[in-house]
Amino acid sequence: MQLSSPRKRDLLDHYEANGDELDRWREFNVAYHEDDRKFMRFLIPPGKRVLELGCGRGDLLAALEPSYGVGVDFSASTIAKANALYPDLHFVFGDAEEPDTLTSIEGPFDYIVLADTIGMFEDIDGTLRLIHHLCAPSTRIVISYYSHLWSRC
């Protein structure tokens, strides 16, 4: 897969080189991640069709207990971990900002989740336009993103 920008290549290199450290960081911040999952489960009931863009290892997607769950991530090693951890879910290796990645996914979805992902997009508006074909009139897009400004409070 060819990434569209040097910034994305740097992000991918960082995730690929620091995967084990990121897993340890996730364990260290288990309370934050559990609260995040609880809130997402409040917003998204079990048994729905869910697409997660930037799914990482698939932990959040699995916690949502979808009837049909699809996760997209641009890290091949992360997608391999997700497939091993959650074989009942579907994972797509690709860039969520690339039309070829999103056209390979069959919709529509009840919910599309962008959790801690939107700030990594080069073209947020363009990406939201790309996911339109995966939506039905009742589809809900759930966007969450950690603001580093909150840590200064």
Descriptive account of the structure:
The protein is of the alpha/beta class and 153 residues long. Helices cover 41% and strands 21% of the residues. It contains seven helices and five strands; from the N terminus they run αααβαβαβαβαβ. It has a five-stranded parallel β-sheet with strand order 3-2-1-4-5, covered by helices on one side. Strand 2 (68-73), helix 5 and strand 3 form a beta-alpha-beta unit. The model has no long low-confidence stretch (mean pLDDT 86).
Got a strand count?
A: 5
> Kindly state the mean pLDDT as a whole number?
86
Output the radius of gyration: 15 Å
Per the principal axes of the C-alpha atoms, what is the gross shape?
Answer: globular
How many DSSP helices? 7
Proportion in β-strands = 15-25%
Q: Which stretches of 5+ consecutive residues score pLDDT under 50?
A: none
The helix/strand series, from N terminus to C terminus, equals HHHEHEHEHEHE
Strand order of the largest sheet: 3-2-1-4-5
Q: What key attributes describe this structure?
A:
153 residues; alpha/beta; five-stranded parallel beta sheet; 5 strands
